[in-house]
Amino acid sequence: KGPDRKWGQVVEGFPKPKGDAHTATVIWLHGLGDTGFGWAPVTESFGMPHVKFIFPTAPVEPVTLNNGMEMPSWFDLVGLSSDSQEDSDRILSSAAYLASLVQKEVDAGVPCDRIVVAGFSQGGAIALTAGLMMMDAPIAGLVAASTWLPSVVSPTDVGLAAPLLMCHGESDPVVMFKWGKMSHDKAVKFGVKSEFKSYPGMEHGFCPEEMADVSAFLQSRLPKI
After folding, report:
1. Angle between the 122-132 and 88-107 helix axes, to the nearest 10 degrees?
2. Where are the beta strands (DSSP E) in 56-138?
3. Nearest-angstrom CA–CA distance, 197 and 147
4. Would you write out the chain's pLDDT as a tens digit for each of its 225 residues?
5. Active-site choice (94, 146, 204, 213)
6. Does 121 participate in catalysis according to the annotation?
7. Which of 172, 183, 194, 213 is catalytic?
8. In terms of pTM, does the model score above 0.90?
9. Which of 93, 94, 121, 183 is the catalytic position?
């Protein structure tokens, strides 16, 4: 079923929750060419010692958009526009992998409604796919930064129950702002309770205002208990 793939290292955020203090989990997926290590340092900025942050790493695979060069990639990219051909096999395979990481947390005693799935750029597309197609129980929320909603997504009732925060830089030259906004509108049409935050002048990155917005969302969805 689906392509055979070698997943990269799962990096834990630092500082790690002490002892039994971990009552919630955030699983955060990086963008194209990055690794879990690239995002792990943001953990400290959130100041949520009761939350375990997990940063998986994508398999190293050839990317058509980058002349077939091999790099960590959740799925192949042919282009970066809403009408580009989509690698639905690998999108679904990565989403299934992410769902398995959620399940692992549930098996370890963290309820679904104490888990948030998040991602940046290509990782955000996978977070949206996995989150909106969840089968068992709704997660606490979804964060999708500088990203788009893949067309392969067909949401489940369980998936639609998770609130979504989408964030996008208005000057993004990689994933066009318009595409991000269209994706949010599509999610709302599906029935998702989605909020869209935009940042004037921000390109394809992460700014302090966005950090504050994501932090507020995480604190509201995963309060200390």
Report:
1. 70
2. 60-63, 69-72, 115-120
3. 12
4. 467 899 999 999 877 776 667 899 999 999 999 999 999 999 888 989 899 999 999 999 999 999 999 999 999 999 888 888 999 999 999 999 999 999 999 999 999 999 999 999 999 999 999 999 999 999 999 999 999 999 999 999 999 999 999 999 999 999 999 999 999 999 999 999 999 999 999 999 999 999 999 999 999 999 998
5. 204
6. yes
7. 172
8. yes
9. 121
